[in-house]
Design goal:
The chain is an all-alpha fold. The chain has 12 helices and no strands. Helix 2 crosses helix 5 (about 75-90), helix 7 crosses helix 8 (about 130-160) and helix 9 packs antiparallel against helix 10 (about 190-205).
Length: about 260
Amino acid sequence: MALFAMSKSLGITPPEPSGNRPRGRARSKVAEEAVLDAAYKLLSEQGLQATTVEAIAAESKVSKATIYKWWPNRAAIIMSAFLRESLVAIPYPDALSLDAVVERVMNMSEKFRGPIGRMMAALIAESQLDPALAREFQAGYINARRAEGVRIVKTSIAQGIVRRADPQVVLDVLYAPLYYRLLIGHQPLSAKFVREYLQLAMHGILCEVAATATEAGQHLAVRASRSTASASEPPTAARKRKGESQAGKPLTQSPKLRSPL
């Protein structure tokens, strides 16, 4: 439903049920996909400035007249192509547990290091100068995604996972550092960075019970991984390691040499 609503807001004609389609409609869908493929290819390979309606028409083999039947302007085509890829590549988590958020933001940081990140930065920069693009970016990407994020935060608050707070502020706390590094580029979008800032952010966002449960789960996971490693160790290696450990203990720890005082 979210994709359907965004498609309408961006000037895309949503597909009709197959039983109501007139003959020849399937060709239009193929042409529409060709336009979006061409726009995304131009965006990723040549950049935003080179992604003109003329270039899209030439690349897709679809006439400008046909393109303008489906999209009101260049900005709408660009956002349609970008949203089609980004909504699949960087979805929201279903719940705001630490593990789910870390997985989600790790995935975002990886995507932001590639073509989607370059496009995102270019769209944000160009939006400062192009009012039409700014409107499409705000409506199609920012507002639609924030609405979904607010819904997830409100659900997490109701479930006692997240502290009572303004959902918009919670989303800013979770995602602003990622966009800051994307746009400023003063430090890399590394996995280490994501883990560290999310540990800090989530300790402030999660309720005390949820935070304690998360920490307990992390400790159990570490212990489980150590137990698995020990179980898979050959017996001779385990005995050798145990012997080395005993040999390395201070004399005061040996039962035979312990002082009776």
